[in-house]
Amino acid sequence: MATRPSAAFQFQALAGRPLAAPVHPARSGKVIIPKRCFNVSSRLAWVEDELEEMRKSEEQSSVKSKKRPPLRRGKVYPQLPVPEHIPRPSYVGSKGLPELCNVHQIHDAEGIAGMRAACKLAARVLNFAGTLVKPSVTTNEIDKAVHNMIIEAGAYPSPLGYRGFPKSICTSVNECVCHGVPDSTQLQNGDIINIDVNVFLNGYHGGTSRTFVCGHADESIKHFLKAAEDCLEKGISVCRGGTNYRKIGKKISKLAYFYGYYVVERFVGHGIGTMYHSEPLILHHANENSGRMVEGETFTIEPILTMEKTECVTWEDGWTTVTADGSWAAQFEHTILVTRTGAEILTKV
To answer: Rounded to whole angstroms, what are the CA distances from 332 to 202, 236, 284, 317?
Structure first.
């Protein structure tokens, strides 16, 4: 089958032709330029525009193909102080490692009010954190600003001191799957960063996270982030009292497959409330686990997607987990309250 000549070929062919018919002098001695030369010029201008678009597209593709250097650990600064009057979770200062509680956290009216307050604060803090994401800003600077906002609200940053975690939030850049430790790493234009915020307010934990773009991102990254957020929303959409937990993972994995991305199976959602982590464990991939949701319970849904199918590697710090092949990851998270007819997203502003 014959193919259409390229724009460059068309331009060269046109360039070899006369721009207009020969110029003839009029009887009056004036030169008459045939009108059809303007049609040819118009066509040439169109071809030049096409070539310019092709050139820009090639430049953009060249930028996309430039792979960023692998993520490296920067300098981790000492943990920030929390005023003594702010209540701490029970695990802070404990020598033993907190175990996952096997109790589902089901709340009465008072508990629901406490969860709503904690989750609302977490959501506001996350929105503020997103405004700090700019080129040259360090993840440590984001951590410090967020830490101050949390303690000014009379709350405690839940990650601080949990199993020895040294900072107040998690900041996971590019190929970091989750649990990135804030440090001296400077964000660059085009980076993506997941900021994971958890607060302990008046005896209740609330958690949420979102992946932000630093500066400008190409369309492929925007598509990837949309897919990750859509997967979270799809998982939430099936939640209601009496529904099997496994439906969450089935919906998420099916949508991720449709988009052409992969769900990280190693990390899960969990119950949350007066305890930071508890049953149920929410699997984000297809599974056959038993168990049904109960009206009044709260848990997180927090799927992580990767652009390529890959394994995860945890650094020596015991926290920072990255993709083995350097492909990028994105995560979105909400804390939800199960109701009789659906789910209330507690961390949605």
So the answer is: 25, 12, 12, 23
Q: How many CA atoms lie within 13 A of 212 on its CB side?
A: 21
**Cα distances (angstroms) measured from residue 239 to each of 282, 299, 339:** 12, 11, 8
Instruction: Report which DSSP code applies to 275.
Output: S
Question: What CA–CA distance (Å, rounded) separates 334 from 123?
Answer: 9
Other Cβ atoms less than 10 A from the Cβ of 107: the count is: 18
Contact status, residue 332 vs residue 210, Cβ threshold 8 Å? yes
Q: Is the dihedral of CA 108, 110, 116, 119 positive or negative?
A: negative
Peptide bond into 280 cis (omega under 30): yes
Do residues 180 and 166 lie in contact, with contact meaning Cβ atoms separated by under 8 Å?
no
4 alpha carbon, distance to own chain's centre: 41
277 Cβ contact list (under 8 Å, min separation 6): 98, 100, 101, 270, 271
> What are 122-170's pLDDT values in tens digits?
999 999 999 999 999 999 999 999 999 999 999 999 999 999 999 999 9
| Structure-token pair, residue 211 | 């992946």
Residue 247: Cβ within 10 Å count: 17
pLDDT single digits (tens) 216-225: 999 999 999 9
E strands, 82-159, are: 156-157
How far is the C-alpha of 45 from the C-alpha of 215, rounded, in Å?
34
Cα separation of 329 and 288, whole Å? 25
Tokens of 128: 């503020």
Alpha carbon distance 131, 211 (integer Å): 12
Per-residue pLDDT at 16: 40
Q: What is the pTM of this model?
A: 0.81
Q: Where are the beta strands (DSSP E) in 50-191?
A: 156-157, 170-173, 176-178
